[in-house]
Write a structure and sequence with these properties.
Largest sheet: none
Structural class: mainly alpha
Keywords: Electron transport, Membrane, Mitochondrion, Mitochondrion inner membrane, Respiratory chain, Transmembrane, Transmembrane helix, Transport
InterPro entries: NDUFB3
Protein name: NADH dehydrogenase [ubiquinone] 1 beta subcomplex subunit 3
Main location: mitochondrion
Oligomer: single chain
Radius of gyration: 23 Å
Membrane topology: Single-pass membrane protein
Length: 84
Amino acid sequence: MAHEHGHSKMELPDCKQWKIEGTPLETVKKKLAARGLRDPWGRDEAWRYVSGFANNGSFIGALLQGFKWGFAAFVGSLNKDKHH
């Protein structure tokens, strides 16, 4: 108890509740099966694609995420350079 620092233990869900079917991992599973292979950790990664966890943002959205603050900092630095 002395070293918890106010953090409670995180409860991890059982990986057996996640299904690969209906996720992009299903394609990987089929390609591996065609070669006689299987992904033993596929179900462990399926949670990333289940609603509520997946981030469906676009590439452009990721690039522009901090644009307004970056542009403001750029203008501010230009303004500072002009005055000094």
